[in-house]
Design a protein that fits this description.
Blueprint: E1 2-7, H1 11-20, E2 26-32, H2 39-43, E3 52-53, H3 64-73, H4 76-85, E4 90-92, E5 97-100, H5 105-112, E6 120-124, E7 131-134, E8 137-140, E9 149-152, E10 179-185, E11 189-191, E12 202-211, E13 214-225, E14 229-231, H6 233-243, E15 251-256, H7 266-273, H8 282-290, E16 298-305, E17 313-318, E18 335-337, H9 351-369
Parallel strand pairs: 1-2, 1-9, 2-6, 9-18
Antiparallel strand pairs: 3-5, 4-5, 7-8, 10-17, 11-14, 11-16, 12-13, 12-15, 13-14, 15-16
Helix pairs in contact: 1-9, 3-9
């Protein structure tokens, strides 16, 4: 009987436990510092659980070559088949985002988690502080059992308030592996000299991220103006590309509010109608009347991303070069890393949960072979 430890009861850890629990030759021990499983999974997709995307491509991740290796092993089609084998039915929207048919994230958690399964041992409200090698086995803290395989699935400090992320994943420091600092990704931006008049405004626009005069990425979507900055899915995606820049100086975002009518002559419209109140959101129009601006190129200078507490995922984690193709750590046999433990982050729309589930499939296959 192989003893398997999964550190983390988030999306990747739960999925891995579901893949393994039907195999009679394994005992699964799950450890998590939270009192309940799947906290972030419950919140994903606005509470609907955007499980993955049918249109996954490597270039939507910060390490495209590594993402391509994963996609060669696990495709969106294969992931759908696995979920369906668990009895979870799904629906897909026009942008390829896949949700439980119930449109309720708890459905996905219920399908994945069965704490009463005979070979599942749940250790919730349990903080892993020490991970040590003991001959051919691994030990966790002073837990009475040694493990054949340990899977690191405790995620990142994204969406955590500062006091909860103190010493988070500190047990990794003894492993002697390269770990990139975690910074917020899929997060909004604070803006320099922000026009607070726009607070509470929501409007669609083409948003373009520039570094100097170089276009980094542009995308169409809804922008949410907050008290001191901007957010919305399109802005979260821009933050993913912002994080991939080696230097983050001289960065700004240009908003084009005339996405629906690029040929509109603003001056002629003003001459005929006296204002832009029939063109712009009322708050944008009020700002324009105070201080006119180019409504095809409304420039906002990035101050900094919002704090990790507001981030959906992190940019950073265990360097992808530290793991082999089967996601075992090269320096530590029988020690695997999946999901947000690795320095892999993608854009919004199911990309990050796809990686969490796909990496779990790869590791489960390796453990089952043993």
């Amino acid at each position: 009987m192989r003893q398997i430890a999964i550190i983390g009861a988030g999306a990747s850890g739960l999925f891995l436990s579901r893949l393994l629990r039907e195999h009679p030759d394994v005992e699964i021990h799950i450890f998590d510092r939270c009192k309940q499983v799947g906290t972030k999974l419950r919140a994903s997709g606005g509470g609907k659980a955007n499980l993955f995307n049918e249109q996954i491509t490597p270039d939507c991740y910060n390490h495209p070559e590594f993402a391509a290796q994963i996609l060669q092993k696990v495709t969106p089609e294969r992931l759908r088949q696995v979920f369906e084998s668990f009895g979870l039915l799904m629906s897909t929207d026009e942008e390829g985002r896949v949700y439980p048919l119930s449109q309720f994230s708890q459905t996905a958690v219920d399908v994945l988690w069965e704490p009463e399964a005979p070979n599942i041992h749940s250790n919730m409200d349990y903080e892993v502080k020490k991970l040590t090698r003991d001959g051919d086995y691994w030990r966790i803290n002073d837990y009475p059992i040694v493990f054949n395989d340990v899977v690191l699935a405790s995620g990142s400090p994204a969406n955590m308030i500062p006091k909860n992320r103190r010493q988070y994943n500190e047990y990794l420091t003894s492993l002697g592996i390269k770990i990139h600092p975690c910074v917020p990704s899929l997060v909004g931006f604070k803006i320099k000299d922000y026009p607070t008049l726009l607070s509470g405004c929501r409007v669609k626009a083409i948003a373009s991220l520039y570094q100097g005069n170089r276009l980094i990425h542009k995308e169409f979507g809804e922008i949410t103006f907050k008290d001191d900055g901007i957010s919305g899915i399109v802005i979260l995606n821009l933050s993913a590309y912002y994080n991939r820049l080696e230097e983050k100086t001289d960065c700004h975002i240009s908003l084009n509010f005339l996405y629906h009518n690029e040929i509109l002559d603003t001056k002629e419209h003003l001459r005929q109608h006296g204002s832009l109140q029939g063109v712009l959101h009322p708050k944008l129009n009020a700002l324009y009347e105070r201080k006119p601006f180019d409504i095809k190129n409304f420039d906002l200078i990035i101050d900094e991303p919002y704090d990790l507490a507001f981030a959906q995922v992190c940019h950073g984690g265990i360097d992808v070069n530290e793991v082999a193709e089967n996601l075992v750590l090269k320096k530590h046999p029988h020690l695997f890393a999946i999901g947000e433990m690795l320095d892999m982050d993608g854009i919004c729309g199911g990309y990050n949960l796809f990686f969490a589930f796909a990496s779990a499939i790869i590791v489960a296959g390796n453990i089952i072979k043993k």
